[in-house]
Amino acid sequence: MSLFTVLRTTIAAALIATVALAATVPTPALAQGASAPAAAAPAPAAPAAKVTEEAVENPYGLKALWNQGDWVAKGTLVIMVIMSMGSWYIIFTKLWEQKQMLRAAREEPEAFWKSATIKAGAEGLKEGSPFRYIADQGIRAADHHEGTMVEAIDKPTWIGMTVDRAVGSIQGRLQDGLAFLATVGSTAPFVGLFGTVWGIYNALVKIGISGQASIDKVAGPVGEALIMTAIGLAVAVPAVMGYNWLIRRNKAVMDATRAFAGDLHNVLLAGKR
Hints:
The chain is mainly alpha-helical. Helix content is 78%, strand content 0%. The relative contact order is 0.12.
């Protein structure tokens, strides 16, 4: 065998051995994937703990103001409560009264003027109605123009005076209680301010006696005293708004009342239906 043949045989055997060895050894990626264990799934996160909030009672609220206040502070609070209750009572009662009178103004005059006579029309009006009152007064003045002093005034003037007095009585009835609303609206803020000044004065006296001027010793009592001013404003604002609203509605009622009184006056003077 020649040398060339030996060398060729040896190289061929080496190549075959190399290929066989490469086929038996796994690649690094596959080896790593095969050798590494499967990654475990991440554990579920624990639920967040609930944060409980404890209600903290305000040590400087309205309750503390009443419990710790002296007789001046308590008296101021009582006065403002009375003013507020009186204001709301007047507002609701006057609104109901005005509602009834406005309804009568829409319904009663039309039925009155369709009657055969003034007396029949007056009898058909509702008892307690302002139009019934004006009609009764006018009819009485026209039928009873008697007496030495009364006869000194001519009958048309006497009828006009009587009807005007009846209209004035109705207007005075509508104005009942409005003076209280005006008084509450103008004085309630000052009553509350007085309570605030008195509370701040007592707070400063206590701070001076204790000798502690920290923020909790100053801000708490001062803020507590300011509640008085807030209460005063809360009492005054509804009173002022209610007063203005009632005045506006009173004007509508009186316009209808004066129109009816003027027509009645003219009919009574003419002596006809």
